[in-house]
Amino acid sequence: MKKPLEPLTRYHELEQEKEREKKAAARCRPVKVGLDAILKKLLPSRGSDPMNQIQQAREIWREAAGEEIARHSTPTRWREGVLTVMVDAAPLTSQLQSFSGQALVGDLIGLGLEGLHTIRFQTGNRPNSLAPGEGRET
Predict the structure, then answer these.
(1) Which helix (H) or strand (E) holds 122?
(2) Rounded to two decimals, what is the model's pTM?
(3) What is the model's pLDDT at position 59?
(4) Per the domain annotation, does 76 fall within a domain?
(5) Given this model, what pLDDT does residue 4 score?
(6) Which residues, including other chains, have CB under 8 Å from residue 86's CB and lie 6 or more apart?
(7) Do residues 17 and 60 share a domain?
(8) Listed residue (130, 60, 123, 127) closest to 87, CA to CA
């Protein structure tokens, strides 16, 4: 007795099956990968690197701004390329906003603070001491 002939698989069908498998594999990626991406986007990354940019900004602020200005101001926040500096006197705040903002940006970038594009000056009580990494957001 003769076996019935099995139909031959066509090349096109094999290619379609490969595409289906690729799509199925993409849908089955681990949950951790997606969760990590969401957490990285939404949560601050404190401690993700040993030298946070806010700490780096505080360290080079005195050199970039000068001794007199640094005595009356403190970098308090870093977020998406914007450095917020708390100044203890309103006249100094307005003077810094008017005349020194872009010059200080250039000086800070030159001293190693990469990714900075804007400095915002705010009048208020400056913090005496901030914990390492405090004020860092991404």
Answers:
(1) strand 118-123
(2) 0.55
(3) 84
(4) yes
(5) 64
(6) 73, 74, 75, 76, 122, 123, 124, 125, 126, 127
(7) no
(8) 123
